[in-house]
Amino acid sequence: MPSISVVDMEGKNVGTIELADSIFGIEPNAAVMHEMVVNYLAAQRQGTQSALTRSEVSGGGKKPWRQKGTGRARQGSTRAPQWTHGGVVFAPKPRSYRFTVNKKVRRLAMKSAFSTKAAANEIVVVDTIALDEYKTKKIAAMLKAIEVEKKALIVLDSVDSKVIKSAANIPGVKTAQVNTLNVYDILNADKLVIAKGAVSKIEEVYA
Asked: Could you give the CA distance from residue 165 to residue 101 in angstroms, rounded to a whole number?
């Protein structure tokens, strides 16, 4: 069972916490993590691209020239794909790129992502993440104190608008709750900053 230090918002060590082996100590499965990252990115696509097929392009009703006797290739419409101003062959149309992934695969991918971060020492557990006011400087000061300099994902145990909005202005910093976590955000962050209360919720959900 991996053990990790718990710090406060000023970076001072206030104890340790044992992380569940079943979530933070498994052998990461790269294939399922890749599948979940592809799934997440596919769901972000708008799918609004559209082009006209030959049947949708305006005009082209008259046959350009007679079928036989001209010496040229036979043509039926000036809106066929080989013509300038013609339609597009297999034109893209608005559609959803979403696809579903089995629940067991999703759970294994989340556990693998947590274990990857734990193995790389990229998890920081903070005793309590809370603010009295909306203040970006305080979140920035906390990240500096706990030596998080690049991209960070702050995981809260509940919705805290003061923390969420204060962190929103910092480039590379995202916030999430246990029920909104996804594999892409976990792997994309250089550091996973988790509130102590959120650790127990993560273990409860994915145990």
From this structure: 31
